[in-house]
Design brief:
three-stranded antiparallel sheet; mainly beta; 11% helix; globular; Porin; 478 residues
Amino acid sequence: MSRCVLQSSSSRLRASTSGSTLAESTGRAKKSKCNAAQQILASSSFGSGRLKLPKSPLCDSHKQSNTLTTSQNCKVTVVACPRKSRGLLFLAQYAKNEYRGIGLRSAGICCSVVAAALSLSCQHVSAQSSVTLGGMTDISIRYLTNDDAQNDGRFFMANGAVINSHFGLHGTEDLGNGLKAVFELENNFNPQNGSMGDSGRLFDSAANVGLSGDFGAVTFGRQDTPLFYKLITTFDPLTYASYPENSWLPWALEAGLAADNSIRYIADIGGLSVGAMYSFGGNYEISGPAGFSGDVPGHFTAGSLANLLLSYTTGALDVGAGVQQLRDNSNHRQTVFNLDARYSVSDIKIYTGWLYSQDNTGLIDTLLAEQSIPDISRIKGTDRIDNGPFGGFAWQVAPSALLSTAIYYDHMQNATTATGALGSGSRYTVVALAEYSLSKRTEVYGTVDFNKVNGTAAVELPGRSNQTGIAVGLRNFF
């Protein structure tokens, strides 16, 4: 998707959208043609460091005013420019004072400035940098059977079925010679009540900064592990479901999916992708009873996480392999191996994968238990093994309709029962998801899922040995 670029010089201001012309040259504009421009700019809001733009015939009418699509289908985003950049916001703040700024006088601002405002991307001459605010609001109505020890059903409102509602800031700054500074700040939230996804932190999904260039990208902070990042972008048929009844396999076996206090490297070399990470500890999702806080004097690797991923794309085939090792504060370990493949044929994508975990920390028992289990100190060192194949497909039935199915399976050994004994068991989940796009930003969906457990896995469901879930939802991207 192309981006509109605002270009400025000492004598003119014009907008370009991959070669399309949005307005006449400023030099030829007549003062009589500025009436509409004056009305538009005068009615705009320049407060709080942001420019609100009215709708324009140049843009699709269904788009909101701060995310516009030109007649050339060029999506642009309104962002704030520092005053020192002498960008359009600086110009707009002087609009009511005879339209002075960037070398333009009175009527010289005219038609092309308004056209540029309507295709604003706010990339100024002094430094090619941008900050983008984006995200998604997704809410669903869900019903679950056998959702307590008395096998009662539950009807409730929930977050999204596929990915949690979230918003975030993503920024880049061009440092020259192909080097860029990048940052990411992202927060999950609960649209059903307006609360934060995690009341204890502002950016629970991501908070990192780094450098990118021809060598790849190195980032520091809280971020997805390479194993999880590749899984959700390429190899999971549901792109990682957010209901715990659907996402239990990758969430538990991959140790919480994101890592705090981490250094991550990602690079694409032709069809080969490389990802590596090291975390110093304090991984949030697992920092409680399992003892993964890290930062233990004299124990450099306490609470640490190390992750390595390789994937390759050739034609319609994608393949990947990864390994991850997590240590607790007592040097017990959880090791995960992962193999994945995806094949595209016509409008169908076929997925298959395998997750294998060997856990001496008690982590998996703790994360998956819906019923009471013994204290974590009693189940460390039990050498639990999980063998988890998964697969599915996604079918683009029509440009606006997508059907997806997935099955997740786990055979476990040395898992902990409610009484503290060890045993074997299995669990599988089958999911069907139908999504329909009402526009480029708005979708509706319906989903059905079924869980079945036996043996030691019985503690992973709250009631009977099976559970069915049904949900419908609405999501909007912004």
